[in-house]
Amino acid sequence: MITLSFQVDPAYLAYYTIRNCEASRFVNVDDENNQKIVDFQNAAWFKDRQASQFIRFGPSDVNVLASPSIVEIAQRAEKLIQSVLDDATFAPLLAETSHSLELIRSQWERNCLKTHDMISEMTGFTLKGDFRVFLTHQALKQGYYQSELKAMFCAYRNSWPNYNTVYIWHELLHHFIPGSADLEHAVIQLITDNELRIRLNGGQYPPFEGHPYLKPLMELIVPHWRNYLNSKNRKIEKFICEMAARQDVKHQLSKCHADNRDDSVDALR
User: Fold this and answer.
1) Residue 68 DSSP symbol
2) I need a surface site. Which of 66, 165, 229, 243 has the fewest CB within 10 A?
3) Which residues pair with 26 in a beta bridge?
């Protein structure tokens, strides 16, 4: 079975919030609750402007050619992260993120057994392993799987019922279907963002959930996907290999690569 450990790491929460200041990183730029995030980001900026910039953008030419050096500014960034944990502006972010952890964990515990069987049946995988789930504040976009840590990074969403369960399975499948190629990612989206979603909530697809640049590819392979779901002895690796060998899929993959303008955050986020 899959075992998940849900965590809010205060230092990581502070780091991630300082790092993501651009308006495009907010889920809803018009949400009045965003001010809590901005207040904390400003507090970090006023404590140490250069360290805050380093967290956001990495080392600059100044850090290589003059002072502070990369080592010095990295040490200051580490001190900044520790110091802001006691700032008054951080307390509400930590409390709200901790509350969102309980919401996600509760939803996962309600759904994990039945969705485990659904995903296993769709993929042919024996699904087991221990993974960590690190939560950041729900006002900021977040979502990816880190294979070296066997951990996913995400934030609570309530865009539709069972959203977080579907998202967790999406990221888990990046472990079981390794690699970041467009075809594998499109198949993961068909399994989780679409098929699992409608099995839990009802409805139909298309229209598709997922990265917009992958939707033409999903439209192309969805008839084969439905045939696959109706077959016996399903093995998702075999299905991916069969799709990869098709000339029409190869052509669409070349267009996907050219059209991919998404950032690093996964589609549901």
Assistant:
1) S
2) 66
3) 140
Query: 209: which DSSP letter?
Result: P
Give the chain's mean pLDDT: 93
Give Cα 87 to chain centroid, integer Å: 28
The CA-based dihedral angle spanning residues 51, 57, 58, 64, taken in that order and rounded to the nearest 10 degrees: -90
- pLDDT band, residue 64 (cuts 50/70/90): confident
CA distance 72 to 84: 18
Helix, strand and coil percent figures for the chain, each rounded to 5? 60, 10, 30
The type of residue at 175 is: H
Q: Please, which pLDDT band fits residue 263 given cuts at 50, 70 and 90? A: very low
Burial class of residue 179 in the structure, from the number of CB atoms within 10 Å of its CB (0-12 exposed, 13-18 middle, 19+ buried): exposed
* Burial (Cβ within 10 Å: 0-12, 13-18, ≥19) of residue 54: buried
pLDDT digits (tens, 9 = 90+) for 36-53: 999 999 999 999 999 999
Q: How far is CA 236 from CA 82, 208, 233, 255, in A?
A: 45, 20, 10, 23
Sign of CA dihedral 86, 88, 94, 99: positive
Residue 66: the pLDDT is: 77
- List the beta bridge partners of residue 14: none
CB atoms within 10 A of CB 48: 18
Which residues partner with 129 through β-bridges?
Answer: 2
User: Residue 224: in which H helix or E strand, if any?
Assistant: helix 215-229
Can you give the pLDDT at residue 264? 46
- Give the residue-averaged pLDDT of 110-124: 97
